[in-house]
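Hi support team,

I'm filing this because I wasn't sure whether my run with 2-phosphoglycolic acid finished correctly. The job status page said complete, but I'd like someone to confirm that the output block is well-formed before I use it downstream. Pasting the exact inputs I used:
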Amino acid sequence: MEPVTTLRTPFIAGNWKMNLDHLQSIAFVQKLAWALKDAQHDYSAVEVAVFPPFTDLRSVQTLVSADKLELGYGAQDLSQHDSGAYTGEISGAFLAKLECSYVIIGHSERRTLHDETDEVVAAKTAAALRHGIVPVVCVGETAEDLEKHGASAVPVAQLTRVLESVPADAEIVVAYEPVWAIGSGQAATPEQAETVCAALRDTLRPALGEEFASRTRILYGGSVKAANIASFMRQANVDGALVGGASLDVDEFSSIARFQKHVGI
Ligand code: PGA
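And here is everything the job wrote out:
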Protein backbone atom coordinates (compact mmCIF):
# COMPACT_ATOMS: atom_id res chain seq x y z
CA MET A 1 0.00 0.00 0.00
CA GLU A 2 1.24 3.52 -0.77
CA PRO A 3 2.19 5.52 2.34
CA VAL A 4 -0.43 8.05 3.34
CA THR A 5 0.85 11.36 2.04
CA THR A 6 1.80 14.03 4.55
CA LEU A 7 0.68 16.78 2.16
CA ARG A 8 -2.92 16.39 3.21
CA THR A 9 -4.09 16.82 6.78
CA PRO A 10 -6.88 14.31 7.44
CA PHE A 11 -10.24 16.01 7.85
CA ILE A 12 -13.18 14.70 9.86
CA ALA A 13 -16.34 16.70 9.14
CA GLY A 14 -19.67 16.34 10.94
CA ASN A 15 -22.75 17.16 8.88
CA TRP A 16 -25.52 17.70 11.43
CA LYS A 17 -28.19 18.12 8.73
CA MET A 18 -31.43 19.50 10.25
CA ASN A 19 -30.61 18.50 13.83
CA LEU A 20 -29.75 20.43 17.03
CA ASP A 21 -31.07 23.94 17.69
CA HIS A 22 -28.74 26.76 18.71
CA LEU A 23 -28.91 25.95 22.43
CA GLN A 24 -28.22 22.28 21.77
CA SER A 25 -25.38 23.26 19.47
CA ILE A 26 -23.60 25.10 22.29
CA ALA A 27 -23.89 22.12 24.65
CA PHE A 28 -22.79 19.74 21.91
CA VAL A 29 -19.74 21.74 20.83
CA GLN A 30 -18.65 22.20 24.45
CA LYS A 31 -18.88 18.45 25.08
CA LEU A 32 -17.09 17.62 21.85
CA ALA A 33 -14.28 20.07 22.62
CA TRP A 34 -13.90 18.57 26.11
CA ALA A 35 -13.91 15.01 24.81
CA LEU A 36 -11.19 15.83 22.30
CA LYS A 37 -9.19 17.79 24.86
CA ASP A 38 -9.39 14.90 27.33
CA ALA A 39 -8.06 12.65 24.60
CA GLN A 40 -5.29 15.21 23.89
CA HIS A 41 -6.45 15.46 20.34
CA ASP A 42 -3.91 17.07 18.01
CA TYR A 43 -5.94 19.21 15.61
CA SER A 44 -2.89 19.84 13.46
CA ALA A 45 -2.69 16.08 12.84
CA VAL A 46 -6.42 15.56 12.22
CA GLU A 47 -8.64 18.55 11.50
CA VAL A 48 -12.16 18.36 12.93
CA ALA A 49 -15.12 20.53 11.91
CA VAL A 50 -18.87 20.60 12.49
CA PHE A 51 -21.55 21.75 10.05
CA PRO A 52 -24.56 22.94 12.08
CA PRO A 53 -27.78 24.46 10.71
CA PHE A 54 -27.60 28.16 9.79
CA THR A 55 -29.44 29.24 12.94
CA ASP A 56 -26.70 27.73 15.14
CA LEU A 57 -23.72 29.30 13.43
CA ARG A 58 -23.59 32.55 15.39
CA SER A 59 -23.68 30.62 18.69
CA VAL A 60 -20.98 28.23 17.52
CA GLN A 61 -18.84 31.14 16.33
CA THR A 62 -19.17 32.91 19.69
CA LEU A 63 -18.26 29.77 21.63
CA VAL A 64 -15.33 28.82 19.40
CA SER A 65 -13.91 32.33 19.60
CA ALA A 66 -14.53 32.85 23.36
CA ASP A 67 -13.02 29.49 24.32
CA LYS A 68 -10.36 29.65 21.59
CA LEU A 69 -11.39 26.21 20.36
CA GLU A 70 -9.45 24.63 17.53
CA LEU A 71 -12.60 23.01 16.23
CA GLY A 72 -13.60 24.24 12.78
CA TYR A 73 -17.12 24.89 11.54
CA GLY A 74 -19.02 25.61 8.39
CA ALA A 75 -22.47 25.84 6.85
CA GLN A 76 -24.45 23.15 5.04
CA ASP A 77 -25.31 25.27 1.99
CA LEU A 78 -25.17 28.81 0.61
CA SER A 79 -26.75 30.88 -2.14
CA GLN A 80 -25.12 31.19 -5.51
CA HIS A 81 -25.99 34.93 -5.29
CA ASP A 82 -24.30 37.47 -3.04
CA SER A 83 -27.30 39.65 -2.13
CA GLY A 84 -30.73 40.71 -3.35
CA ALA A 85 -34.29 39.49 -3.72
CA TYR A 86 -33.74 35.82 -2.87
CA THR A 87 -36.12 35.18 0.02
CA GLY A 88 -34.85 32.56 2.42
CA GLU A 89 -31.38 32.33 0.90
CA ILE A 90 -28.08 32.81 2.76
CA SER A 91 -25.19 34.69 1.16
CA GLY A 92 -21.59 33.55 1.31
CA ALA A 93 -20.86 37.08 2.56
CA PHE A 94 -22.91 36.35 5.69
CA LEU A 95 -21.10 33.06 6.26
CA ALA A 96 -17.74 34.78 5.85
CA LYS A 97 -18.78 37.32 8.53
CA LEU A 98 -19.56 34.36 10.81
CA GLU A 99 -16.00 33.16 10.14
CA CYS A 100 -17.14 29.90 8.57
CA SER A 101 -14.08 28.17 7.14
CA TYR A 102 -16.11 25.73 5.07
CA VAL A 103 -19.45 25.23 3.36
CA ILE A 104 -20.93 21.94 2.14
CA ILE A 105 -22.14 22.22 -1.45
CA GLY A 106 -24.20 19.82 -3.54
CA HIS A 107 -25.03 17.31 -0.84
CA SER A 108 -27.17 14.58 -2.37
CA GLU A 109 -30.12 15.69 -0.21
CA ARG A 110 -29.88 19.16 -1.81
CA ARG A 111 -29.49 17.65 -5.26
CA THR A 112 -32.55 15.40 -4.91
CA LEU A 113 -34.88 17.28 -2.55
CA HIS A 114 -34.11 20.77 -3.91
CA ASP A 115 -33.37 19.89 -7.53
CA GLU A 116 -29.84 21.27 -7.42
CA THR A 117 -28.24 20.65 -10.80
CA ASP A 118 -24.52 20.44 -11.53
CA GLU A 119 -24.81 24.04 -12.81
CA VAL A 120 -26.20 25.25 -9.49
CA VAL A 121 -23.54 23.30 -7.59
CA ALA A 122 -20.86 24.92 -9.78
CA ALA A 123 -22.32 28.41 -9.20
CA LYS A 124 -22.46 27.83 -5.43
CA THR A 125 -18.87 26.60 -5.45
CA ALA A 126 -17.82 29.80 -7.23
CA ALA A 127 -19.81 31.84 -4.67
CA ALA A 128 -18.03 30.16 -1.75
CA LEU A 129 -14.62 30.81 -3.30
CA ARG A 130 -15.56 34.48 -3.94
CA HIS A 131 -16.04 34.88 -0.21
CA GLY A 132 -12.92 33.01 0.85
CA ILE A 133 -14.80 29.97 2.15
CA VAL A 134 -13.52 26.50 1.27
CA PRO A 135 -16.28 24.55 -0.51
CA VAL A 136 -16.78 20.91 0.45
CA VAL A 137 -18.16 19.72 -2.88
CA CYS A 138 -20.23 16.55 -2.62
CA VAL A 139 -20.49 14.07 -5.47
CA GLY A 140 -21.83 10.54 -5.62
CA GLU A 141 -23.81 7.99 -7.56
CA THR A 142 -27.22 6.50 -6.82
CA ALA A 143 -27.75 2.74 -6.65
CA GLU A 144 -29.23 2.93 -10.14
CA ASP A 145 -26.19 4.87 -11.49
CA LEU A 146 -23.95 2.26 -9.90
CA GLU A 147 -25.74 -0.53 -11.69
CA LYS A 148 -25.87 1.27 -15.04
CA HIS A 149 -22.55 3.11 -15.19
CA GLY A 150 -20.31 1.65 -12.46
CA ALA A 151 -19.15 3.59 -9.41
CA SER A 152 -16.91 6.34 -10.79
CA ALA A 153 -18.73 7.69 -13.86
CA VAL A 154 -21.34 9.90 -12.18
CA PRO A 155 -19.11 11.34 -9.42
CA VAL A 156 -16.38 12.08 -11.98
CA ALA A 157 -18.90 13.81 -14.31
CA GLN A 158 -20.30 15.85 -11.38
CA LEU A 159 -16.82 16.95 -10.30
CA THR A 160 -15.77 17.78 -13.86
CA ARG A 161 -18.70 20.16 -14.18
CA VAL A 162 -17.84 21.94 -10.90
CA LEU A 163 -14.17 22.27 -11.78
CA GLU A 164 -15.11 24.43 -14.76
CA SER A 165 -15.79 27.23 -12.27
CA VAL A 166 -12.82 26.62 -9.96
CA PRO A 167 -9.57 28.57 -10.50
CA ALA A 168 -6.47 26.37 -10.61
CA ASP A 169 -5.08 27.73 -7.32
CA ALA A 170 -8.30 27.36 -5.32
CA GLU A 171 -8.57 25.28 -2.18
CA ILE A 172 -11.52 22.94 -2.31
CA VAL A 173 -12.44 19.74 -0.50
CA VAL A 174 -14.20 16.96 -2.39
CA ALA A 175 -16.57 14.56 -0.62
CA TYR A 176 -17.39 11.28 -2.32
CA GLU A 177 -20.72 10.14 -0.95
CA PRO A 178 -22.42 7.25 -2.72
CA VAL A 179 -26.12 8.09 -2.35
CA TRP A 180 -26.96 4.46 -1.54
CA ALA A 181 -24.57 4.55 1.43
CA ILE A 182 -25.95 7.72 3.04
CA GLY A 183 -27.95 7.00 6.18
CA SER A 184 -28.41 3.38 5.09
CA GLY A 185 -25.97 1.69 7.44
CA GLN A 186 -24.46 0.12 4.33
CA ALA A 187 -21.13 1.87 3.80
CA ALA A 188 -19.07 1.38 0.64
CA THR A 189 -16.16 -0.98 1.08
CA PRO A 190 -12.82 0.78 1.64
CA GLU A 191 -11.70 -0.56 -1.76
CA GLN A 192 -14.78 0.89 -3.50
CA ALA A 193 -14.16 4.25 -1.82
CA GLU A 194 -10.49 4.18 -2.83
CA THR A 195 -11.31 3.38 -6.47
CA VAL A 196 -13.66 6.35 -6.79
CA CYS A 197 -11.49 8.74 -4.74
CA ALA A 198 -8.50 7.86 -6.95
CA ALA A 199 -10.62 8.56 -10.06
CA LEU A 200 -11.68 11.89 -8.54
CA ARG A 201 -8.05 12.83 -7.90
CA ASP A 202 -7.25 11.98 -11.53
CA THR A 203 -10.09 14.34 -12.48
CA LEU A 204 -8.55 17.12 -10.38
CA ARG A 205 -5.16 16.87 -12.11
CA PRO A 206 -5.94 18.50 -15.49
CA ALA A 207 -8.05 21.21 -13.83
CA LEU A 208 -5.86 22.15 -10.86
CA GLY A 209 -2.43 20.86 -11.86
CA GLU A 210 -0.44 18.10 -10.20
CA GLU A 211 0.49 20.05 -7.08
CA PHE A 212 -3.00 21.26 -6.19
CA ALA A 213 -4.53 17.92 -7.10
CA SER A 214 -2.18 16.18 -4.71
CA ARG A 215 -2.94 18.74 -1.98
CA THR A 216 -6.73 18.54 -2.33
CA ARG A 217 -8.46 16.50 0.33
CA ILE A 218 -10.99 13.92 -0.79
CA LEU A 219 -13.35 12.63 1.87
CA TYR A 220 -15.51 9.54 1.91
CA GLY A 221 -19.05 9.82 3.30
CA GLY A 222 -21.90 7.36 3.80
CA SER A 223 -22.53 5.38 7.00
CA VAL A 224 -19.12 6.20 8.49
CA LYS A 225 -18.80 5.26 12.16
CA ALA A 226 -16.06 4.65 14.71
CA ALA A 227 -15.97 0.96 13.80
CA ASN A 228 -15.20 1.49 10.08
CA ILE A 229 -13.32 4.82 9.87
CA ALA A 230 -9.83 3.31 10.22
CA SER A 231 -10.36 1.03 7.22
CA PHE A 232 -11.24 4.04 5.04
CA MET A 233 -8.33 6.11 6.35
CA ARG A 234 -5.90 3.36 5.36
CA GLN A 235 -6.70 4.06 1.69
CA ALA A 236 -4.17 6.23 -0.15
CA ASN A 237 -6.70 8.62 -1.67
CA VAL A 238 -9.18 8.89 1.21
CA ASP A 239 -8.23 11.90 3.33
CA GLY A 240 -11.08 12.01 5.79
CA ALA A 241 -14.80 11.56 6.20
CA LEU A 242 -18.04 13.47 5.95
CA VAL A 243 -20.09 11.99 8.76
CA GLY A 244 -23.86 12.39 9.11
CA GLY A 245 -25.72 10.34 11.72
CA ALA A 246 -22.63 9.40 13.73
CA SER A 247 -21.62 13.06 14.05
CA LEU A 248 -24.59 13.66 16.38
CA ASP A 249 -23.13 11.47 19.12
CA VAL A 250 -20.21 13.15 20.91
CA ASP A 251 -18.45 9.92 21.90
CA GLU A 252 -18.87 8.32 18.49
CA PHE A 253 -17.77 11.42 16.59
CA SER A 254 -14.76 12.08 18.81
CA SER A 255 -13.79 8.45 18.40
CA ILE A 256 -13.99 8.86 14.61
CA ALA A 257 -11.75 11.95 14.89
CA ARG A 258 -9.25 9.86 16.87
CA PHE A 259 -9.06 7.15 14.21
CA GLN A 260 -5.25 7.23 14.40
CA LYS A 261 -5.52 5.74 17.87
CA HIS A 262 -7.58 2.82 16.65
CA VAL A 263 -5.85 -0.51 16.62
CA GLY A 264 -4.14 -1.35 13.39
CA ILE A 265 -3.95 2.00 11.59
P1 PGA B 1 -24.48 9.29 7.12
O1 PGA B 1 -24.60 10.65 6.24
O2 PGA B 1 -23.12 9.34 7.79
O3 PGA B 1 -25.60 9.40 8.12
O4 PGA B 1 -24.60 8.16 6.19
C1 PGA B 1 -23.50 11.16 5.53
C2 PGA B 1 -23.88 12.46 4.86
O5 PGA B 1 -25.03 12.57 4.42
O6 PGA B 1 -23.06 13.37 4.75
